[in-house]
């Protein structure tokens, strides 16, 4: 039972939300300043980057009910767009993000268009082909992409002079990157939040929960699916650009099928139907791919042979199954249940509800027939 | 007293019985038409190919494509079995086949059993494992909610691949073949070589398809399987043990997959990822076949195999690695015109 | 002591956590036809589904004097057959395969001759034996459903709204055949029906369900004359 009960939309509820929001923002802003190690700042930055990709995947999987195993390709597309524009055309890093969005919107729509005629699981098989195809395409055009050697930008992104972080300390540049990425990511979260609460968002939910009824209510199901796919791809593209800002180097192996699957693992772990779930999801993602991999490498199970990846694979598989079985709503659902222990937020009744209170009681003279 | 329907005007019995088969006839016609279009496209391309590179080269590529395609068709068959029983695509089908193939390999390598026995051991073990997986990881979920089941199959894909890598490592290994492999062991068809390994593989695959088709249409298990695929609740009321039926289709699918793996391994070498590509081609094949037809899976496999061999063979720009892309575009193209595949039936959902 | 064919003692049924039947008692004797009436949502379908254990139940259900068991496939093997609401046609199978599927639990050799019997009873099915069942008309699908359900040679047939969506004249013919076949084979029936007049006409006894509990029970004739029942279900 909750210790406190607050009604939704009341002053206390508003204060709670603003308070929690400001606290979170303050935490994220101060975080890099109190961490002394470059590697840890980079890890946190990666978490922020991947959270945007997971957020985008969540829009598609959690909110529209479509599954994509091809998002690694869109992350890669965004990443390559940024690195090509920066390295070959001397664009500033941040200016490439809108281009990434555009490129991925178009690519996402192109992949999503088969959804006009393809139902259900066929789309999943198409996306897996996309994921497998992307590294091949990268190697097909080495003059653009650097092929198997990858591509690098010579200069990292630098902050303007007025910025408060001193760039001449070791942690300076990564902190700069962190702030830039954080701002973009926050913007993306805001956009996602608004999409979900909008008319299109409700249409997406309808398509997810009951596609036929949605179609019968006049929702253009195919268009909504394509929209969801394209927007989701655009989020993934932004994540790719952000990853390049964090580390200005890309190669084809960074965006393989495994990335797609790990994004899905992270999404499910974080909570697929929740915007905020992308954050714990990204933490799971990065911890699995870096810390656990290092730890497993250290175990030396195979007598000298590298085994980090394998342990991570088995663990991720087990983790995924555990989450689907035990906590289908992901970490965020667990956190919410925890919060409900402390503060219960009860929904506010509709305005003027008392006026309609007696509207339902007209049939009192039909004892035997009961509508349920 | 007999009963006649009165909700439609009486008609002569002959016309009625023909009229009653409208649905089936339409399906046959549409399947024939789409197969005709595919054949015509292949034929047109063949003319270009023969003029471009000569008959022998062309025949060689057709033979290679078709024999590879038969393998894709076998894996597609496994996908279709699971799809019909559970309603999802098993993304771990390839990984399960890979694991089964490694088990067969271990049986040959470590215990020195004859290859045929080893393959059978691999098939039985993977069938048992698949039955267990279905019972423990798939059955608890509401079958109408696909997302968690797909996620579980993806998790299995990750875990099985990693486990195989942990147990057997990434070094590719040669896998023995059932058929003579000498450099002279081939049939010559117009100068092109049809090696006995390829021929044997194709024959085994065709035999599997025929056997499965007969099982499905004649046996009690087949009847139960078709009932479950059609309507789970009705089947339950007919006394069909749903769980056991679904479980046996997972088991059969895994065994067929392992057999396909054992047949493919001699040419591709055996490592934990060797089925990944084949699985994607099998997706293409199953999608082409319409995901619900046994014969469609095989036809889809052969079409995919031919398309890849001919496209990558004759359009140099596509060459080699881009086969994946070809598979992808073939799927998209076919689905644009035939959303339920070449041989699949159109389904209708009700609100 | 002789026991009834089917006996429900204080049966509760649940969809998830929601209780839909609140302690229903019901008996069916050998060869008896029992009709269950009730408004939409009263729990009629749930009652049939709980006999087949398609929903979670509490309480005792006895069949042939022994607990009915927890698994639908065993219940069917013991001689209970159900025609679900909406007929449960196996739309992707041919008409013949549908009827064969009805005899799935049988392993005797008479399946073929029984197939012939049903084609005789329902000639329209014989004409369309190799058609996909999904293309049959509603009336034909109902015939198919009845043939399929009786192929398993049940002792008890559960029918959920067999008249749903059918023209009145088809319904009457269907009920005639049903009554005749069940009398011939001594099959007991529980019929859930909206067409109360017709159902009470063929039944020996009836139950009226209201909000998940039995409100009225009695001989079919008595129910027909009961004023409340008449006003609520017979509409005159």
TrEMBL record, chain A:
The chain crosses the membrane at residues 20-38, 44-62, 69-87, 93-113, 120-138, 177-196, 226-245, 257-288, 308-332. Its main location: membrane. Keywords: Cell membrane, Membrane, Transmembrane, Transmembrane helix. CDD domains: TM_PBP1_LivM_like (cd06581). It is found in: Cell membrane. GO terms for molecular function: branched-chain amino acid transmembrane transporter activity. InterPro entries: ABC_transp_permease, LivM-like. It is a multi-pass membrane protein. One of its GO terms (cellular component) is plasma membrane. This is Amino acid/amide ABC transporter membrane protein 2 (HAAT family). The lineage of its organism: Bacteria, Bacillati, Actinomycetota, Actinomycetes, Pseudonocardiales.
TrEMBL record, chain C:
The keyword Nucleotide-binding applies. One of its GO terms (molecular function) is ATP binding. Residues 6-236 form the ABC transporter domain. Gene3D superfamilies: P-loop containing nucleotide triphosphate hydrolases. Pfam families: ABC_tran. PROSITE patterns: ABC_TRANSPORTER_1, ABC_TRANSPORTER_2. Keywords: Amino-acid transport, ATP-binding, Nucleotide-binding, Transport. GO terms for biological process: L-amino acid transport. It comes from the Bacteria. InterPro entries: AAA+_ATPase, ABC_transporter-like_ATP-bd, ABC_transporter-like_CS, BCAA_Transport_ATP-bd_LivF, P-loop_NTPase. Belongs to the ABC transporter superfamily. This is ABC transporter ATP-binding protein.
């Amino acid at each position: 039972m909750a210790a406190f009960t607050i009604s939704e939309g009341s002053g206390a509820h508003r204060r709670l939300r603003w308070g929690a929001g400001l606290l979170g923002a303050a935490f994220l802003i101060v975080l890099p300043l109190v961490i002394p190690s470059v590697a840890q700042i980079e890890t946190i930055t990666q978490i922020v980057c991947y959270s945007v990709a997971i957020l985008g995947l969540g829009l598609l999987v959690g909110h529209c009910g479509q599954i994509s195993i091809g998002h690694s390709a869109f992350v890669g597309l965004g990443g390559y767009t940024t690195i090509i524009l920066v390295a070959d055309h001397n664009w500033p890093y941040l200016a490439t993000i809108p281009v990434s969005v555009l490129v991925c919107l178009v690519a996402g729509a192109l992949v999503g268009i088969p959804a006009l005629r393809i139902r259900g699981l066929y789309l999943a098989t198409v996306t897996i082909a996309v994921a497998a195809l992307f590294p091949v395409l990268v190697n097909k055009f080495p003059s653009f992409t650097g092929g198997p050697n990858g591509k690098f930008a010579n200069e990292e992104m630098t902050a303007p002079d007025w910025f408060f972080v001193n760039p001449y300390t070791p942690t300076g540049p990564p902190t700069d990157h962190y702030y830039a990425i954080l701002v973009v990511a926050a913007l993306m979260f805001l956009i996602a939040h608004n999409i979900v609460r909008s008319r299109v968002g409700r249409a997406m939910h309808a398509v997810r929960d009951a596609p036929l009824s949605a179609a019968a209510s006049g929702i253009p199901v195919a268009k909504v699916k394509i929209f969801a796919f394209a927007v989701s791809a655009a989020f993934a593209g932004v994540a790719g650009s952000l990853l390049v800002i964090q580390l200005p180097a890309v190669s084809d192996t960074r965006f393989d099928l495994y990335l797609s699957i790990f994004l899905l693992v992270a999404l499910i772990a974080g909570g697929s139907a929740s915007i905020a779930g992308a954050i714990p999801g990204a933490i799971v993602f990065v911890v699995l791919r870096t810390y656990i991999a290092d730890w497993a490498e250290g175990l030396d199970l195979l007598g000298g042979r590298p085994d980090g990846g394998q342990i991570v694979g088995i663990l991720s598989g087990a983790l995924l199954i555990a989450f689907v079985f035990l906590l289908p709503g992901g970490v965020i659902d667990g956190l919410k249940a925890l919060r409900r222990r402390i503060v219960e937020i009860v929904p506010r009744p509709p305005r003027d509800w008392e006026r309609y209170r007696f509207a339902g009681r007209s049939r009192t003279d039909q004892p035997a027939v009961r509508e349920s | 007293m007999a009963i006649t329907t009165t909700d439609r005007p009486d008609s002569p019995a002959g016309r009625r019985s023909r009229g009653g088969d409208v649905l089936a006839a339409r399906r046959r016609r549409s399947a024939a038409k789409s197969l005709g279009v595919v054949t015509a496209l292949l034929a047109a391309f063949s003319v270009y190919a023969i003029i471009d590179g000569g008959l022998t080269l062309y025949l060689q590529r057709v033979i290679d494509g078709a024999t590879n395609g038969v393998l894709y068709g076998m894996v597609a068959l496994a996908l279709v079995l699971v799809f019909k029983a559970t309603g999802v695509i098993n993304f771990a089908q390839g990984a399960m086949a890979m694991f089964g193939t490694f088990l067969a390999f271990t049986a040959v390598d470590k215990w020195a059993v004859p290859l045929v026995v080893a393959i059978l051991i691999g098939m039985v073990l993977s069938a048992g494992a698949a039955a267990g997986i279905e019972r423990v990881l798939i059955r608890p979920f509401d079958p109408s909610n696909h997302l968690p089941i797909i996620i579980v199959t993806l998790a299995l894909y990750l875990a099985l691949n990693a486990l195989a890598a942990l147990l057997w490592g990434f070094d590719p290994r040669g896998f023995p073949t059932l058929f003579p492999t000498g450099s002279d062991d081939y049939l010559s068809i117009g100068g092109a070589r049809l090696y006995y390994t390829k021929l044997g593989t194709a024959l085994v695959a065709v035999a599997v398809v025929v056997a499965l088709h007969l099982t499905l249409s004649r046996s009690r298990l087949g009847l139960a399987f078709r009932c479950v695929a059609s309507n789970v609740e009705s089947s339950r009321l007919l006394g069909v043990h749903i769980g056991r039926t679904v479980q046996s289709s997972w088991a059969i699918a895994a065994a067929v997959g392992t057999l396909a793996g054992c047949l493919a391994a001699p040419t591709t070498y055996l490592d934990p990822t060797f089925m990944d590509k084949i699985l994607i081609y099998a997706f293409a094949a199953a999608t082409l076949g319409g995901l619900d037809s046994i014969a469609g899976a095989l036809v889809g496999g052969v079409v995919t195999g031919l398309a890849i061999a001919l496209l990558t063979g004759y359009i140099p720009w596509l060459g080699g690695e881009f086969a994946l892309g070809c598979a992808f575009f073939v799927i998209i193209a076919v689905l644009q015109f035939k959303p339920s595949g070449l041989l699949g039936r159109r389904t209708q959902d009700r609100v | 002591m002789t026991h009834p064919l089917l006996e429900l003692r204080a049966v509760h049924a649940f969809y998830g956590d929601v209780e839909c039947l609140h302690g229903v008692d019901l008996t069916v004797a050998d060869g008896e036809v029992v009709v269950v009436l009730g408004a939409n949502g009263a729990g009629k379908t749930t009652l049939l589904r709980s006999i087949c254990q398609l929903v979670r139940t509490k309480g005792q259900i006895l069949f042939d004097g022994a607990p009915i068991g927890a698994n639908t496939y065993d219940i069917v093997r013991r001689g209970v057959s159900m025609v679900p609401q909406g007929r449960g046609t196996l739309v992707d199978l041919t008409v013949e395969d549908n009827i064969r599927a009805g005899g799935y639990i049988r392993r005797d050799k008479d399946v073929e001759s029984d197939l012939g019997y049903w084609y005789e009873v329902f000639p329209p099915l014989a004409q369309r034996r190799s058609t996909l069942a999904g293309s049959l008309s509603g009336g034909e699908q109902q015939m198919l459903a009845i043939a399929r359900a009786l192929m398993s040679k049940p002792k008890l047939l559960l029918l959920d709204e067999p008249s749903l969506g059918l023209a009145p004249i088809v319904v009457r013919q269907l009920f005639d055949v049903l009554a005749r076949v069940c009398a011939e084979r001594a099959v007991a029936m529980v019929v859930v029906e909206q067409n109360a007049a017709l159902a009470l006409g063929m039944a020996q006894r009836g139950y009226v369900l209201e909000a998940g509990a039995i409100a009225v029970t009695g001989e079919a004739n008595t129910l027909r004359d009961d004023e409340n029942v008449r006003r609520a279900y017979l509409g005159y």
